[in-house]
UniProtKB/TrEMBL annotation:
Ranges for domain D-isomer specific 2-hydroxyacid dehydrogenase catalytic: 5-319
GO cellular component terms, A-Z: cytosol
UniProt keyword terms in alphabetical order: Oxidoreductase
Pfam families: 2-Hacid_dh, 2-Hacid_dh_C
Protein family: Belongs to the D-isomer specific 2-hydroxyacid dehydrogenase family.
Keyword match Protease: no
Protein name in the entry: 2-ketogluconate reductase
Gene Ontology MF terms: glyoxylate reductase (NADPH) activity; hydroxypyruvate reductase [NAD(P)H] activity; NAD binding
Domain D-isomer specific 2-hydroxyacid dehydrogenase NAD-binding, first and last residues per copy: 110-288
Amino acid sequence: MKDRVYITRKLPEETISGLKEHYHVEMWDKEDIPVPAEVLREKAKEASALLTMLSDSIDGDLLAEAHRLKVVANLAVGYDNIDVKAAAEKGITVANTPDVLTDTTADLTFALLMAAARRITESAEYVKEGKWKSWSPLLLAGQDIHHKTIGIVGMGNIGQAVAKRAKGFDMNILYHNRSRRPEAEEKLGAVYASFEELCEQSDYVVCLAPLNESTKNLFTEEAFRRMKNSAIFINAGRGAIVDEDALYRALLDGEISGAGLDVFVKEPIGKDHPLLSLSNVVALPHIGSSSTETRMEMARLCAENINLVLSGKQAKTPVHI
Ligand code: GLV
Ligand code: GLV
């Protein structure tokens, strides 16, 4: 009997044709509606491999019933949607998609920083709504990016790629990470700072950390209070690293001056989300790695990881816990 592979969202045919040659491949066929949890759980019982999205919860209960499952290939670098410990206990490989999305995600993160700093979305709406009546000296004045201080929390590959972009803008670079990154210090002139120092000294605080027990709710009311009143907070990591109520209050009370957010505690957010009522917030629908080229690469890498594990080899990019 052929191994069964279940794919939880519609993917371009060419990225999975290799899987179809060897396995019985089934795919949730809607592009914009996630597979219901009950359906995924049923499919997981029979599957040898799952190709999952970051919005699918692969928890202990699902894994406990997934007796044939050998690999979960997540179409993301983050894997906080998967109980990796429960998977490891069952000998199930979890694989993610690092590296292929690094530059694309860094581009988006920097675009978000620039959009928030120079009020790009607000200004674009202003023109489209016919509000532009005259040129004036301080019309939609934002703040400078060049020669300012960026503080990057989470100096993995993406953090370092953002630092490289910041260097091109003559920014001073601070970073905070679980472990020091000598390569970023030597090549990019990044300076290690404690989390508190980074919050206090940065003009742009950029969160690119993974979500785990030590980063959950890292950005509290106190962290925002430490920041400069002119600081802009950028989050392209995970929503739950931030206390969203505290962020909302900090923006409302002028503790910080703006935010650019690609991720939220509970996604997707609707138009009634409190953060959307603030003109100094730029919000995006979790599109960090979303260029056509990169999303194709990510899908191909997931397929490759599945192929490798089901043919008895090591995944190319397994998650290590
Ligand atoms: C996106 O957020 C990812 O983890 O790849
Ligand atoms: C992984 O650590 C990344 O930031 O790409």
